[in-house]
Amino acid sequence: MDDEDAMSDNSVPFGYGASAFGSEGEEEEEDVAVHRESALRHMEWETAVESYDVERAASPAPSYDSMCSDDGIGAQAESRCKIQLYRKDSSGSSCCSSSSDEKPNEEPKEEEMIQEIPTPSLKPKLLIDPNETRHPALTVDFAFKVLQSSLKQLREEHFKRFKRILWERYPEYFRDQLSSLDIIDLVDKMLEICGLDVSLKITLNVLLNDMKCKYVAEQLQGMCKRNEVRYELKKTLRRLYEHVSEDPSQQTLFEDVCTDLYFTDGGNAAVNSEHEYRQIQELQEDARSKNNPLSLTDIFNPKDVERRHIRTVITKGSPGTGKSFLVQKFILDWVEGRSHQDIFFLLPLPFRELNQMTGETVSFMDLICKLYPEMKEVDTLEFEGCQVMFICDGLDEYATPVNFRRTAYWCDHNEPANTNVLITNLIRGNMLYSAYMWVTSRPVAINQIPAECIHQLLEVRGFSHEQREAYFRKTISDKELAERVIAYIKSCKTLYIMCYLPMFCTVVRRLLEKDLQSGERPKGLTQFYTKLLLLHINKRCQKLLSQDPEFFLKLGNMAFQLLEKGVFTIEKDLWDKYVLRAEDAVVTAGLCTQFYRETFMMYQEKVDCFIHPTVQDYLAALYVFLSFKKHKKNVLDSTKKKGFSVFKGDLELYKSAVDKVLHSKSSNFDLFLQFLLGMSEETNQELLSILLGHTRTKQEAREETAIYVKKMLREYPERKEYLQRCLDELCPHPH
Ligand SMILES: Nc1ncnc2c1ncn2[C@@H]1O[C@H](COP(=O)(O)OP(=O)(O)OP(=O)(O)O)[C@@H](O)[C@H]1O
């Protein structure tokens, strides 16, 4: 193994238990040499301890296999480490001269060194407590790395001395002279002969008590302790992230659901505006946006980090595109040792959790320990060779805006400060500059972070075409059913287009799986969108709705008026016109988003729009429907009649919508009509009762509307297919 690599490459999990050393107190100071004499004196009666003697050394040493931890976290490392243990070159011993701040005070001459340690005349004993269990974090690979890294810090003559002492002191382990061995061979031999715990124990004893290399010994102890903490942290993260959080009742394993996502470098992509009927021309992809899909290993890829000086990565994406899932995948891959093992501590700090601490005054280390109590065992996160990474998911959810200009400078980890000050300074890089920072957010909140603090901007775009299909194949265990679901989705263009949004895929899977399994006719398009709306409402909109019960009516009105003009983007002044706040629609409701449009040369303009044009169609239909049901107003009727009977009114509303579409030169309202008719359906009205109350469309009105649509079918044969879909929305069950 290359020495440099061994110091910096943590590509497999470390694993060593400081417990192997016993306590850090007096007991530790008790040198093996002391034991050697006393143990021999008490050899006869000391039966409680296991003993090893010279004869024992002749027997084959415990193999590496038997030393391997059987914990999943370490297993992968161990299978690899056997290969790594073979040296690639013989440069190991040359590193002995590398400098260290604290070396043994006097450099004894070789003869003195030999004199210093009397040749043992008796067989020494090393006391091993049989009850002492090895920490599962202790792996061969870790022990190898940590021993090698400690010995590399000794000067050449001290390394010689170390070998000499080892040989003198522990003849029960080392029968042959060790003087010819370099670091790699020595560590290899130690591990092979003594095992993991004993190798570390004797190394520490020799360093601390015989050679007085306090600095190196403490470093060794520190690395062992941190490695245990890392192990515990991984356990906690596995527990927190291994299930899909949206489904706590079902305990769905994340790995059973998670499908690869399409995300790119750049962050200038236009919003997906593919539409079955409408032509959305204004959304041209920014020329500078990059379409090359990235994979998780491209995030904080060590080569890019170095080449592009990346410290802070920001990932943006419209609501439901899968940012949190991407983060969860990254975390679990780290926990399971699948990627990013150069990161020593991975500490997710979700903004949702940080909201619970708003206004609190704590030190940064306390804040970390509050979320991850196992971190109490380490008093600092700044130590050489151990990369730390923070992941702050969902900046848009953070209750306190991050203000880089107004927030005080802070870099002390141990002094208490307001949590917002700590987080702002962490993102800014004032605290733990060398730590990696990954922040994810819906687009609008990204503006809080100044450009100079963003070293890489990524954009999550949801699922590509192949990924959509892969999602259904992965999540539906019945293969044949999965294919039927995919075939159905492909048969409905709008459904297929909208499945670019992973959140929508989840809705579609749940509904279609049930319907197709039971042989029922699948739900109309309206129900999928209504469920999506409810997911958004339940996620964050409850408070907004209690403050502004008319929010969706107003947003729908804006959607409708823009649809009349065939416009999908939302000009800034429109928000005021409809008495809305862009943040409510973009951040809270998650039904609108933002993107950047190149207007003139280098100038970029921020543009608001709906998350997808079909969502605009749905909201426009919702507006017409809510206006009618709640305010008895048919907004499609230009004559502005009042006082109609509900049955007549229902029929008139649908008739006027059908006429509007059939008489229109554009296809702008085609999907709108499908949604409006779908909203008359009973299940959808039940779902919408949170906005609608308990009003119901009379069966009679629906039947009459169906008769009218069928009549139109005959009059407009060229629109047969389309009108048939309208009928399917109106009567999703066989009629
Ligand atoms: N990679 C994926 N594989 C499978 N399902 C996914 C994936 N990504 C997202 N989903 C589905 O979409 C839902 C929303 O995803 P997620 O919460 O990650 O989106 P988000 O972009 O973080 O949204 P928001 O901006 O609302 O926080 C998930 O709960 C899950 O059902």
From TrEMBL:
<dbReference type="InterPro" id="IPR029495">
    <property type="entry name" value="NACHT-assoc"/>
</dbReference>
<dbReference type="Pfam" id="PF02758">
    <property type="entry name" value="PYRIN"/>
</dbReference>
<dbReference type="Pfam" id="PF05729">
    <property type="entry name" value="NACHT"/>
</dbReference>
<feature type="domain" description="NACHT">
    <location>
        <begin position="311"/>
        <end position="443"/>
    </location>
</feature>
<dbReference type="GO" id="GO:0005737">
    <property type="term" value="C:cytoplasm"/>
</dbReference>
<dbReference type="InterPro" id="IPR007111">
    <property type="entry name" value="NACHT_NTPase"/>
</dbReference>
<dbReference type="InterPro" id="IPR041267">
    <property type="entry name" value="NLRP_HD2"/>
</dbReference>
<dbReference type="InterPro" id="IPR051261">
    <property type="entry name" value="NLR"/>
</dbReference>
<keyword id="KW-0677">Repeat</keyword>
<dbReference type="InterPro" id="IPR011029">
    <property type="entry name" value="DEATH-like_dom_sf"/>
</dbReference>
<dbReference type="InterPro" id="IPR004020">
    <property type="entry name" value="DAPIN"/>
</dbReference>
<protein>
    <submittedName>
        <fullName>Uncharacterized protein</fullName>
    </submittedName>
</protein>
<feature type="region of interest" description="Disordered">
    <location>
        <begin position="89"/>
        <end position="114"/>
    </location>
</feature>
<feature type="region of interest" description="Disordered">
    <location>
        <begin position="1"/>
        <end position="38"/>
    </location>
</feature>
<keyword id="KW-0963">Cytoplasm</keyword>
<feature type="compositionally biased region" description="Low complexity">
    <location>
        <begin position="14"/>
        <end position="23"/>
    </location>
</feature>
<dbReference type="Pfam" id="PF14484">
    <property type="entry name" value="FISNA"/>
</dbReference>
<keyword id="KW-0433">Leucine-rich repeat</keyword>
<dbReference type="Pfam" id="PF17776">
    <property type="entry name" value="NLRC4_HD2"/>
</dbReference>
<dbReference type="InterPro" id="IPR027417">
    <property type="entry name" value="P-loop_NTPase"/>
</dbReference>
<feature type="domain" description="Pyrin">
    <location>
        <begin position="138"/>
        <end position="226"/>
    </location>
</feature>
